Amino acid sequence: MENNNQSLHRTMTSRHIMMMALGGSIGAGLFKGSSSAIDMAGPSVIIAYLIGGIILLFIMQGLAEMAVRNSNARTFRDLVQSTLGHFPAHFLDWIYWKMWVLNIAAEAVVAAIFLQYWFPDYPIWMLALSVSALITIVNLLSVKIFAETEYWLALIKISVIIIFILAGLLLLFVSFGQHSAPGLSNLTEHGGFFPQGPGGLITAMLVVIYSYGGTEIIGVTLAETKDPEKVVPKAVRSTLTRIIAFYLFPFFIIVSLIPWNQVNAVQESPFVLVFKMIGIPGADHIMNAVILLAIISSMNSGLYGSSRVLYTQAEDGRVPQIFAKLSEKKVPVYSILMCTSSLYVGVLISLFAGSKTFDFLMGSLGYTVLFIWLIIAFAHLKSRKQQPDVSGYHVKWFPYTTWLAIIALISILIGVIFTTSIVITSITLGIYLFITLTFIVKTRVLVQKLQDNCK
């Protein structure tokens, strides 16, 4: 190992970070969480994902603007600390780290569920362990190899989603053989477009926010991105249009082809069900394989994001220095190994909770994404006051878009508190209080040291 005298290398390009953002956000939230969201909101889930996509657009524009104006920033902690101060930066760093380590644990279990499609005799914990080991090995290689792996994994899933959309449109509007095209009748025939009322739409927003969470990983790649002031805005623009398209169109097809109240009646993903309807031999196996790759891709991004947050914490002296050490390939090995430990904790949880592990973890993760986005939005508001110059890349409709995002996120947060399990809310609150307590303790220790030195 080499010491951290040499920093991370800027080897990631625009295509890498664009695909990483897609890889982080198009995973279990889409392929597994889709069933939960449809069960909560019915066909109106389309509206929920549209609202979430618009909020995401406003948040990511603000993040891109701050990144352009702070070319020396390593992660979005640096962006937030320079505007909001130490505590919001500390809180953001640790809830973001918590989000990813819980997310990769949840997705390891989801990957195991899809593997059980082929290996029904193997327990979930054993399959989750196999996937966890694979992800660990890929991330311990060089950043360039990791980025290339993530690029191709993301490209595969995007290609298949496009095929899914085209096939779904064909099934919707063209009758052939034993298949009768339903058109748009399923959108209103089974209790209407809002079968669960406004409450169902609000409840589904937690799944929606969780699903879109991960796109902000662009803010963690700053230290390893070539020309971030040019690359980040470009990646944000291209990523957002793809994410919204890859969520809205698939959900529109699913709730149009399959009655919403039947989606959760079977154990298979809605995506596998639709490919079965096409009638191509082995189509369900092909789709299952692609979904599995998509989830592994999302885990890959998650492990990258969490390990880099831990690395910068160590670099700044906030956690033990061992996590700042780099390998010869300039990979923070100890940070990666620390973060992968959550994968194996997820494996242990799945021994007792089985397939319900994902649903349990997803609720807490939804809260976390809400808070991450809120902190980024408030940081953007204050950053414009500190740097009013708008000659470079900037959000054109500032501050209206940022305030709209903040109001929407707070409204969703209030609605989610009243519609989410008290257990999930309490556990999440406990984690947040612990993070806050660690900051208070560290601050007091630092103040005491300074006072002792002055004596």
What does this structure look like?
This is Amino acid permease. There is one protein chain. This protein is mainly α and 455 residues long. The protein folds into two domains: 14-419, Amino acid/polyamine transporter I; 421-455. Helix content is 72%, strand content 0%. It has 16 helices and no strands. The chain has helices at 14-25, 28-31, 33-41, 45-69, 76-84, 86-115, 124-140, 143-173, 197-212, 228-257, 270-278, 283-315, 333-353, 357-386, 400-419, 422-454. Helix 5 packs across helix 14 (357-386). 49% of the residues are buried. Residues 1-5 have low confidence and may be disordered.
Name its key features.
disordered N terminus, 16 helices, Amino acid/polyamine transporter I, 2 domains, mainly alpha, transmembrane, 0% strand, 455 residues
The average pLDDT value, as a whole number, equals: 77
Q: How many distinct beta strands?
A: 0
- Which radius of gyration do the C-alpha atoms yield? 22 Å
Q: Look at the structure and give the CATH class of the largest domain.
A: Mainly Alpha
> Could you state the order of secondary-structure elements as H and E?
HHHHHHHHHHHHHHHH
- Tell the overall outline: globular
Work out the strand percent. under 5%
Helical residue percent band: over 70%
CATH homologous superfamily of the largest domain - what is it?
Answer: Amino acid/polyamine transporter I
Main pleated sheet:
none
For the terminal residues, how far apart are their CA atoms?
40 Å
Kindly identify the CATH topology of the largest domain. Answer: Amino acid/polyamine transporter I
Number of domains: 2
The residue ranges in which pLDDT falls below 50 over 5 or more consecutive positions are 1-5
**At CATH's second level, what is the architecture of the largest domain?**
Up-down Bundle
InterPro entries: AA-permease/SLC12A_dom, Amino_acid_permease_CS
Organism: Metabacillus sediminilitoris
GO cellular component, one term: plasma membrane
Subcellular location: Cell membrane
